[in-house]
Specification:
The protein is built from 11 helices and 8 strands. The chain has about 300 residues and is an alpha/beta fold. Helix 5 (about 140-150) packs parallel to helix 6 and helix 10 crosses helix 11 (about 290-300). The two termini are about 35 Å apart. The relative contact order is 0.14.
Length: about 300
């Protein structure tokens, strides 16, 4: 239940702009996917360069479904480490590789100077394809985390699901799986994207009650294309509130208006999280910089560490 707003509170809210006075004390990270062409690769590095000006904690590059872009991701992650002025977190999954092969990739990352791994079980392929462990491979993200820690003192991030992983038998089982990953040596969890702040706060409270005391970073997906966002949400079990969908009705052929709405929605969403002591945000950029940059700007973050 939302507490009533008394006259003095209403006056304060009316006189204070939503984003006024934010000190820029947030920490951010940005996630990208491997491009499919030379043109896309050039655009990716342009986006990386622009967002790296905001001083992110790290930037990361995904694998494709079923590990389909493993080699490209590996090569580009090493290149990013050399060329981008931001720490790189390389993704590793358990899909389609033996432990020896996965360990060899991790060793290569370490030798290249990459000290942060996003360790994931991974998906078997397109949505709905069941995961099958390689006969000689890691069988779970928790096993992968433990294996990486035996190799090198990596900083490790793992995945969390505020609205429950689609394959989990229950919310409790999903939370138990997260705890196993963190207990195996992971340093933090990054959530799947979500669109209702209360789902994150409830998940954070449940995690704390289960004895999880490591940082849980909310994953933010600014809307670049609503149809695509709806497909992503359906695939991972993220709920789209009715009001959220209504905001984008009629904007399919109005890209500039859609971007204005999307930036406002993303910033207001992050502001709600900020108001409840969230200071770390992980942006799923879809290889575009504008919406993530605009959101960070409205939260007070400036290039080179300058504050609002």
């Amino acid at each position: 239940m939302v507490p009533p707003i008394y006259p003095n509170q209403a006056l304060r809210f009316a006189e204070t702009p939503l984003f006024a006075g934010l000190p820029g004390d947030i920490r951010v990270s940005f996630e990208f996917f491997p491009p499919k062409s030379e043109k896309g690769e050039a655009a990716l590095f342009h986006t990386l360069e622009r967002l790296s000006r905001l001083g992110p904690d790290f930037v990361s590059l995904t694998y494709g479904a079923g590990g389909s872009t493993r080699e490209v991701s590996r090569e580009l992650s090493v290149r990013m480490q050399k060329e981008i002025n931001a720490p790189v977190a390389a993704h590793l999954t358990c899909v389609g590789a033996s432990r020896a092969e996965t360990d060899a990739i991790a060793d290569e990352f370490w030798q290249a100077g990459i000290r942060h791994i996003v360790a994931l079980r991974g998906d078997g392929g397109p949505p709905g394809t069941p995961f099958e462990a390689h006969p000689q491979g890691y069988c779970s993200a928790a096993e992968l985390v433990a294996g990486l820690k035996r190799l090198h003192p990596f900083e490790i991030s793992v995945a969390a699901y505020p609205e429950v992983h689609p394959e989990a038998s229950s919310a409790e089982a999903d939370l138990d799986n997260l705890k196993r990953k963190l207990d195996a040596g992971a340093d933090r969890a990054i959530t799947q994207f979500f669109f209702d702040s209360t789902s994150f706060f409830r998940f954070r409270d449940r995690a704390a009650a289960a004895g999880i005391d490591k940082l849980i970073i909310p994953g933010i997906l600014p809307v670049t294309n609503f149809g695509r966002t709806r497909s992503f949400a359906h695939a991972c079990g993220a709920e789209l509130p009715d009001w959220f969908e209504d905001l984008f009705v009629g904007l399919d052929n109005m890209p500039h208006a859609r971007e204005l709405v999307a930036a406002t929605v993303a910033a207001e969403f992050c502001r709600r999280l900020y108001a409840d002591d969230v200071r770390d945000f992980h942006f799923y950029t879809l290889n575009r910089s504008e919406l993530s940059y605009a959101t960070c700007h409205m939260l007070g973050l400036r290039p080179g560490g300058e504050k609002q």
